Amino acid sequence: MQVAYPAWNDDIYVWRRILPKSVPKLDDRNISGYLVINFMHNWNGEHLPLISTVTIRLLSFVLHLISTHAF
């Protein structure tokens, strides 16, 4: 940041982090790329739609089927 703004003198590692509780935990990192693209597609400039753990599990299952050619 100091390259872009030389007067920058803040340590972001000491900032207080706020972790939202409504964000589901991802156990499968392979699905994260899909979720990023999905969120980018669904972003309307103000908010993102909520995604549930059921949706993530269903997507994980479908991606597993596609990647293993088991259909």
TrEMBL record:
This is Uncharacterized protein.
